[in-house]
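Weekly modeling sync, notes
Attendees: S.R. (lead), two postdocs, one rotation student

Agenda item 3: backlog of single-chain predictions. S.R. asked that every request posted to the team notebook include the full sequence so nobody has to chase files. The rotation student volunteered to paste the first one in as an example of the format we agreed on. Action items at the bottom.

Example entry:
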Amino acid sequence: MTSPAGGFYSAEDADSEGEKGKFYLWTESEIRKVLAKSDADLFIKAFGVEGGGNFTDPFGKQNAGANILRLPKPVKDLAAELKMPEADLQTRLETSRQKLFAVRERRVHPGKDDKILTDWNGLMIAAFSRGAQVLDEPKYAEAARRAIDFIFKNLRTPDGRLLHRYREGQATIKAHADDYAFLVWGLL
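Predicted structure, as returned to the notebook:
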């Protein structure tokens, strides 16, 4: 969701190929096709995969067999329940997750709303800056810095005023109060 130049895009659609969540959802059989039996069994248990699916779209339509992958309990608790070292469980789940991610990347991706908005980028800058401080993670600080540089380079008028929206090389719309407020918050 980050542009190559550093700004953060607005959103990604929930739909692909005309179905809500299709890119993100998994059936039990899809997982079993990708992973070895013991890894599939472990992954399905850990991520709350149900044979009939656990996903209902926002309009109340049950998507037969489709699952949102989520950890219903902490890995530490699951490791204790399975009587296995937490580090081993983490490694196995991550290896399986990477295999499924590689398969998912071959699916039709949802559309991306590639607008870059000053106010929302200000919120992202604030979040990444705080995350960098709390987690001592330099890559978060770098993401914030790149977004700031993008805004200062692309979302300002010649007299220094902010603009609200950037898309396809063009910055337009005079900034609103929330653009200024959220960017200042991010800069602080």
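Discussion: group reviewed the output briefly. The two ends are 23 Å apart (CA to CA).
Action items: rotation student to repeat for the remaining queue; S.R. to check formatting next week.
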